[in-house]
Amino acid sequence: MLHVEHLQKSFGDRIAVQDLSLQIENELFIFLGPNGAGKTTSIKLMTGLLQPDQGSVRIDGIDLAKNPLAAKHRFGLVQEEPVLYEKLTPREFVRFMARLYQVPDTDAMRRTEQLFELFEIADRADELIEEFSHGMKQKVALSGALVHEPQVLFLDEPTVGLDPKAARNLKDLLRGLVDRGTTVFMSTHILEVAERMCDRVGIIHQGQLIAIGSMTELREKTSAAQASLEDIFLKLTGSSDDQDVHRYLGGQ
């Protein structure tokens, strides 16, 4: 469903994404990496928000560069900072998104009400978005991305700003979408959430994909049979430095 081949992007002398290749279909794929590792840049390349220096992206077999409208019709995207028209209400915004994706009005109305109930924003559906908190805006953005029932869903840090119940609802929703055939590509910093949700994990570090697989496969690769995803992540990225922590806490 999502095929990425030899994707590369540089900004000046800095290589942000280097030779990234992925094949993801009908699964919940979690993309991890330290700050600045290339997660958000990769998502922008996969969704046409940035043009790659080389490589290709295919969504449901459609080349994103050659047929961008058809490819974009097949996915939904929620960025870390929601992109919304804040002078609209949630109902108006989601209706606008549905029409962009040519969802029939009756289906759009039904799905909108279902999503608003799921994210508990039905009672504020006719207020202006500009009055909402970050978490509420995230719920509106999620509703807008899901209203056309995309084949592929890209989520960049979707749980940021969500309350625990909304985050749990999102987790259950994503699991249900995957069970129905949707491919979910999600970046997150919350490793406990990632470990509970993922079918497979990809770890990117300094622009390069350094590991990919299920939890079982990652444990085998790191020779750590009982390791948590956090342990594996820190080991692979070299982010764990207990000596520095103890030195700081102990005042040298």
Q: CATH topology, what is it called?
A: Rossmann fold
Number of DSSP helical runs: 10
Strand composition percent: 15-25%
Mean pLDDT: 89
Estimate the global geometry from the Cα principal axes.
Answer: globular
Poorly predicted runs are: 241-249
For the record, what is the CATH homologous superfamily label? P-loop containing nucleotide triphosphate hydrolases
Q: SSE order, as H and E?
A: EEEHEEHEHHHEHEHEEHHH
Distance between the termini: 52 Å
DSSP strand count: 10
Strand neighbour order, sheet with most strands: 6-7-8-3-9-10
Q: Determine the fraction of residues in helical runs and give it as a percent range.
A: 25-40%
Indicate how many domains the architecture comprises: 1
Sheet with the most strands? Answer: 6 strands, mixed
CATH class: Alpha Beta
Judged by helices, strands and strand pairing, the structural class is: alpha/beta
Radius of gyration: 19 Å
What are the defining features of this structure?
252 residues; alpha/beta; 4-stranded antiparallel β-sheet; 10 helices
In short:
By secondary structure, this protein is an alpha/beta fold. The protein has ten helices and ten strands.
Topology (SSEs and partners):
Blueprint: E1 2-11, E2 14-24, E3 28-32, H1 39-46, E4 54-59, E5 62-63, H2 68-72, E6 75-78, H3 90-100, H4 105-118, H5 134-146, E7 152-156, H6 164-179, E8 183-187, H7 191-197, E9 200-205, E10 208-213, H8 215-221, H9 229-237, H10 242-249
Parallel strand pairs: 3-8, 3-9, 6-7, 7-8
Antiparallel strand pairs: 1-2, 1-4, 4-5, 9-10
Helix pairs in contact: 3-4, 3-5
